[in-house]
Specification:
The chain has about 350 residues and is an alpha/beta fold. The chain has helices at about 10, 15-30, 100-105, 110-120, 130-140, 185-195, 210-220, 235-240, 255-265, 275-280, 295-305, 305-320, 325-340; strands at about 1-5, 35-40, 55-60, 75-80, 90-95, 125-130, 150, 175, 200-205, 225-230, 245-250, 270, 285-290.
């Protein structure tokens, strides 16, 4: 029995982790081997994963996200967010996404998160990391974990992200996607665009602007910024298709799916040469060594040149094709089969 713990769908309506786990589940659910997806009464996406007898609905217990899961029989248990089954007859697999809490968050939330994460890792028969960078962080924070138990299973972009028939000049906006917490360096982009009066800023997701963000935006980019909430995949693809570029100046990332999404959609990428970004972007993006606003302004100006832009588009599309959810699935399946000692059909 393969058991997939869908606790992540109780924690977020959308996001990189839920996308990853949804892609995994869809592929494993198509196999003939016995499998279950556990979903809870407090989940945010109750319609997800309706696959007949392969979905098991459970009532959410008090503090469900922090509690381990009781399972009968035997098999393999893979939690979507740092839980495990402690029964002797179940093998445990944990996916580690990043070490953001350990690097940037303050106590006590950091203590609670790290306690749960480290406990799940130490009680796992195999640990999956979404990038070599995350694996390196894991070895740093938990040197007691044998590297023989750690496997890298890179992520991918949704197949909907592709180029369009649009071949005109790009619209005069730069796009920023996702969370704007401190290490994402959002103010860096705002200040960099302050030197480029002909460009606008389109922000997608990440929640409404805070008071301090609005103060900065109104001061540096008056009338030149726009915000959209969590948009559908097709809408985000269209945004990428027409944008001058995606600027992704984060100082740390476990993987960085927006980089792949943009490249797959033919949108040039400017990002920081940090954490996992170089292994995702390769030489298909402009990567900055330091978070300097003048360097970022210069990079945006470079992308405005048609020859540089076209070169980045071509290389980005080629780079994005190296990643696929089928590859993620096949690498994960190989780990399962090694643990179980049998082929999964």
């Amino acid at each position: 029995m393969l058991v997939f713990d869908g606790i992540i769908f109780s924690l977020q309506k959308n996001g990189g982790i839920s996308v990853y786990f949804a892609e995994l589940w869809r592929r494993f659910a198509s196999l003939t081997c016995e499998s279950r997806l556990l979903m809870y009464s407090d989940n945010e996406v109750s319609s997800f994963g309706k696959s007949g007898s392969k979905r098991e609905d459970r009532d959410a217990r008090f503090l469900e996200r922090y509690r381990n899961v009781a399972m009968k029989g035997s098999g393999l248990f893979h939690s979507s967010y740092y839980r495990s089954s402690r029964g002797d007859s179940y093998l445990n697999v944990t996916t580690v996404y990043d070490f953001t809490y350990e690097k940037y968050m303050k106590a006590p939330s950091r203590w609670l998160h790290s306690w749960q994460k480290f406990d799940a890792i130490r009680n796992s028969d195999a640990v999956l990391c979404i990038s070599e960078s995350t694996k390196s962080d894991l070895c740093e924070y938990l040197p007691d974990i044998s590297v023989d138990r750690i496997f890298v299973t890179p992520l991918a972009a949704h197949e909907a992200f592709r180029t369009s028939a649009f071949h005109g000049m790009p619209d005069d906006y730069v796009v920023f996607v996702g969370s704007r917490v401190s290490y994402k360096n959002f103010p860096l982009l705002v200040n960099a665009l302050g030197h480029l009066p002909g460009l606008r800023l389109l922000v997608v997701g990440g929640g409404q602007f805070s008071g301090s963000e609005l103060t900065l935006l109104d001061s540096v980019l008056p009338g030149r910024y726009f915000h959209q909430g969590n948009v559908a995949i097709e809408r985000l693809r269209d945004i990428y298709n027409r944008a001058l570029c995606l600027v992704y100046p984060t100082a740390y990332e476990g993987f960085g799916i927006p980089v792949l999404e943009a490249m797959a959609a033919g949108c040039p990428v400017i990002a920081m040469k940090s954490s996992s970004i170089p292994e995702v972007a390769g030489d298909a993006a402009l990567l900055l060594e330091t978070p300097d606003e003048e360097d970022l302004s210069d990079a945006i100006l470079r992308v405005s040149r048609s020859d540089v832009r076209q070169d980045l588009i071509v290389r980005g599309i080629e780079r994005a094709q190296l990643f696929s959810w089928d590859t993620t699935f096949n690498k994960t399946r190989a780990v399962y089969e090694d643990l179980l000692g049998r082929t999964l059909q």
